[in-house]
Design brief:
One of its GO terms (cellular component) is external side of plasma membrane. With 127 residues, the chain is α+β, with helices and mostly antiparallel strands. It is built from three helices and five strands.
Amino acid sequence: MRVTNKMGLIFLSFLSALHMRSYFITASSQIAKLPEYLEVMYVDGVQILQFDSNSRKTKAKLDWVNKIAAEDPDLWERELRGSISNEQWFKVNIEIAKVNIEIAKERFNQTGGSFSARTMTRLCPDS
């Protein structure tokens, strides 16, 4: 199995045949109390990591992730760089989508409102 995504080498043994890793990403604009960007990593449906644009940190949600990070001092920096890169990509694409939404608002005589985009990515090991 070849894994090139975030934390691929760390989770390689866990994902070899039985586990599934997925990401849930939300990017939003003008929604009160919601970060503009939120990225959550799951393994088998259990949240293990989270990054958001307010804290600007990658946070472990389970103790065993912190134990892995203790063995790999660069883990949090790599995760943070990947999350910030993803955040920038989503920000650019939200700006493009906002232009299209403004056109639709004018066409349908709507004012105000907010915008959010969500994506869920599942990464399954090769069979």
